[in-house]
Amino acid sequence: MAEIKVEKAAAAAPESRLAMVRRARRINRELAEVYPYAHPELDFRNPFELLVATVLSAQTTDLRVNQTTPALFAAYPTPEDMAAAAPEALEEIIRPTGFFRAKAKSLLGLSQALRDNFGGEVPGRIEDLVTLPGVGRKTANVVLGNAFGVPGITVDTHFGRLVRRWKWTEQEDPEKVEAEICAIFPKSEWTMLSHRVVFHGRRICHARRPACGACPIAALCPAYGEGETDPEKAAKLLKYEKGGRPGQRLSPPPDYPGLPAPPLGAGPAAS
Questions:
Q1: What are the residue ranges of helices labelled H in 1-76?
Q2: CB neighbours of 169 closer than 8 A, spacing ≥ 6?
Q3: What's the whole-model pTM score?
Q4: Ramachandran category for residue 123: left, alpha or beta (phi over 0 → left; psi -120 to 50 → alpha)
Q5: Quick one: angle between helices 62-75 and 47-56, nearest 10?
Q6: How would you class 8 by CB atoms within 10 Å of its CB: exposed for 0-12, middle for 13-18, buried for 19 or more?
Q7: Catalytically active residues, by annotation
Q8: In whole angstroms, what separates CA 75 from the centre of its chain?
Q9: pLDDT, tens only, 28-65
């Protein structure tokens, strides 16, 4: 009984900033070992394709975007092509991603801006990217980090949920989250940290039922116990390659250990 009281007292003691930073950096190192193959989960071959795919990924899965973009880029391979698209034709192609009218408007607007203001090329500066219709800091950081090699933190729903769960920040606003996390890690780690955290959130540290009993960083997590702690039951909650099922990319990187996702119409990939 005395030992339990000591543990509870220790757990209740506030964590210093230095201790939090050390724990955060250790989590990043551990995740780097768990996900050495972490990568953007959108299929793309150039900055324009990544920009478009990221805009389409709002309020849908990367899988659904990846199943939709082959036909989209076959029809409109360049900003000039997409800028000249008939809205109805564009809407019909991207319909599977949801909110297709608003997304089509953004794609037409950003393509026209690329054509008219940037010589048909995706700019490599955040100041320019965020001027494009439908492009905010999250999308800009995805493009900069993965198409141009410019470090950035991408605060999506998974990233925000996990960094709050791990007590790295209490902020809810994505820009404030980005600023606080950037202050914890060296700039060189920002892009890969984003991938690792998102990978972990999609595969193990789920929103409603985290697989705590199968989590490789459980000892470092202040939220351990919010999810399933039994190892066997937790293992059944694992998704994508961790659960032995297809990933979200139709064309994953060569070092990805999982199965490619099926194309549109071939049946949904189990998650």
A1: 2-12, 17-34, 47-56, 62-75
A2: 163, 176, 177, 180, 181
A3: 0.92
A4: beta
A5: 130
A6: exposed
A7: 138, 156
A8: 26
A9: 999 999 999 999 999 999 999 999 999 999 999 999 99
